[in-house]
From TrEMBL, chains A, B:
This is Aminopeptidase P family protein. One of its GO terms (molecular function) is aminopeptidase activity. InterPro entries: Creatin/AminoP/Spt16_N, Creatinase/aminopeptidase-like, Creatinase_N, Pept_M24, Pept_M24_MAP, Peptidase_M24B. Keywords: Aminopeptidase, Hydrolase, Protease. Residues 166-366 form the Peptidase M24 domain. CDD domains: APP_MetAP (cd01066). Pfam families: Creatinase_N, Peptidase_M24. It comes from Paroceanicella profunda.
Length: 385, 385
């Protein structure tokens, strides 16, 4: 297991890089409100974000360390990070839930006419009430609020070795749990029981928590990949798929594994072969200088050569502090791949009506060939009793 | 275990109640973007919300059933709900990620000059990119976008018996897991291992998943209540606290339990007594006609009578599809309590510097006395070896 947390120097480097990008973009401050964005610059790691009650703010000024503007309930934990300027209020406070404290902080750090960047683009959310955001803008009438999505994407999409080690650890944990699926899944086991026991295996193998588990089971394939489990027992002829995002030290893995209850049907074997080869093609194409679209195209070519079976959509995505991140492996995403990007390869086939098969692996872009972070799925579908 | 899901009639009733409140508020449509809001009107239950990539929309018109405007990856699951009008697009689509489809839908259902309500107030988040929200407003230049927080609060804060049964089930699951803490926690066990094993117990006892676990351990009390676990081993004299939000069928419990490693110190025993009595006072005050502030005041009076030990802040909150909901048990929240409200009672004491004790129980307001949903904590701190 890698050690936990990152050094103050790591956070200082991230902050300096952000400030370089901010200078190029003409931004006087960043305003961050989401869990991963705040954690990226501070190391503030808590499951308390599950409570939607309180807003949390981090201001990254043009120079110097970030300033936390947070509910007092988080002060003790924030004091353990490298952040020294911590401004708190007693939340919830319906009349003024940190807005005036935040406005004062932004006004002082960015100036009354400052350009304040916040994530407004794809895959981002402003995690504060919309009415409070309007109040903030009224309190800083001469400030300009601008989209800073590109600043954050450019920083976060390339992982440090310490970050990669955490994702690799999450992948290894899931790999050990997947290897133990025969202990918990056989003909007659209700799918909901498999889901429950698989989460227990992930924890036993070292996951801190299990934010995501989906999957499905059905004769020769499954109907969709986002449903919760039902009580239907597994039956011979089913394909079982489990897809997990388990977390280690705040970083996700995201990959799936398929199992056949007894020998698979002929068209399932064919689909498995195609998806295995598609993933191989994706891995081979995953080199610096290629684009996200090149990986999509490499996988799609294998799928198309096998007939018109593609399930469409994107065939993978970024991975890190979030279960899914930019870029997207689609035909149109021209993001250039650079070493340190962690990606999923996720080709899917529609075998028949309501019958899908999805493969997924996690890789990191390296100089030369990509490195697998998930233990490679076997070429042949593993069989369960 | 109660059955899962709700009947189409339940959702139709919720929709009709929303439409009555919308009519009073002069709203022609509701626009919902968050997991609990969309699930409340549809039954769309999936952990796929963990992926921040795609936005999801539900439009509740002034009359008739809601209309889903969602990524096509969710269509199969949405088709299993009572929703019949499902409009999809292939997301992610950076150029237009559902915005024009949503604008067309809202324009048709609310009219070009319609008043569109969305949650903008306390404890709400708009779960779509801010830039897309701006595009939506530009596409409907004559529509008015207004705060609908009160409409949703008024509906969701009073739970049906079917909802209460789910929260009660989650509470019972956690109660069985808490009863088994002596199996997993003793002097020498690292706190991180206790957290891992406790999540496994919750799953084994029937939780679908465990979105929240926090806690702490320290000599005679703990320093804060939102930190993740560290590797420090439990030691004699520690107080261990575990606070969980486990989920059954999409509904949370939220309560904690305290344990003493060996006999507790005298001031810990005193604090335990005060908090037990404060919780009793909160239960006794929890009747229809009282306000959230009355419950706060009843608990605070016990704490104040024992000296100036209060940790301050709110002393409880609503509970349901979210770990924390409105109202807040604070001195200023005048929300009247009505039968069907599910609340936490959560008094806290500062025993000394960096040493807290927090109690928590879950109750539902009934005609007459409130009903405990969590198995009542024992008066004396249970001891671990």
């Amino acid at each position: 297991m890698p050690s936990r947390g990152f050094s103050p120097e790591d956070y200082a480097v991230r902050t300096a890089r952000a400030q370089s990008a901010m200078a190029l973009a003409g931004l006087d401050a960043l305003l961050l409100t989401s869990e991963p964005d705040i954690r990226y610059f501070t190391g503030f790691l808590t499951r308390f974000w599950e409570s939607p009650t309180r807003p949390w703010f981090l201001v990254v000024p043009a120079g110097g360390a970030p300033v936390a503007v947070i509910p007092s309930i988080g002060e003790a934990l924030m004091r353990r990070t490298w952040i020294r300027d911590i401004r708190t209020w007693a939340s919830p406070a319906p009349e003024d839930d940190g807005v005036s404290l935040l406005a004062d902080t932004l006004g002082a750090l960015a100036g009354p006419r400052g350009h304040i960047g916040l994530p407004m683009g794809a895959e981002t959310v402003l995690r504060m009430p919309l009415a409070d955001y309007a109040r903030l803008r009224s309190a800083l009438p001469d400030a300009r609020f601008r989209d800073a999505t590109a600043v954050l994407h450019s920083l976060q999409q390339v992982k440090s070795e310490a970050e990669i080690a955490r994702i690799a650890t999450a992948c290894a944990i899931a790999g050990r749990a997947f290897a133990r699926v025969p202990e918990i899944a056989r003909a007659g086991t209700p799918l909901a029981e498999v889901f429950r026991r698989f989460q227990m295996l992930l924890l036993e193998e070292g996951a801190d928590w299990v934010p995501y588990l989906a999957g499905g089971a059905g004769p020769g394939g499954y109907g969709d990949v986002i449903s919760p489990a039902d009580e239907r027992p597994l039956a011979r002829g089913d394909v079982l798929m489990l897809d997990t995002g388990a977390v280690f030290d705040g970083y996700f893995c995201d990959y799936d594994r398929n199992f056949s209850l007894g020998p698979p049907a002929a068209d399932t074997v064919t689909a498995q072969d195609v998806l295995f080869e598609a993933t191989e093609a994706g891995r081979a194409a995953a080199r610096p200088g290629a684009t996200a679209a090149d990986l999509h195209d490499a996988m799609q070519a294998v799928i198309a050569a096998a007939g018109d079976l593609g399930a469409g959509g994107r065939l993978g995505h970024g991975l890190g502090m979030r279960l899914t991140e930019w870029p997207s492996l689609t035909a149109t995403d021209r993001t250039p791949l650079v070493p340190g990007m962690v990606l999923t390869l996720e080709p899917a086939l529609e075998i028949g009506p309501g019958r899908m098969l999805v493969h997924e692996e996690n890789i990191v872009i390296r100089e030369g060939a990509a490195e697998l972070l998930s233990p490679r799925a076997p070429r042949a579908l593993p069989e369960l009793e």
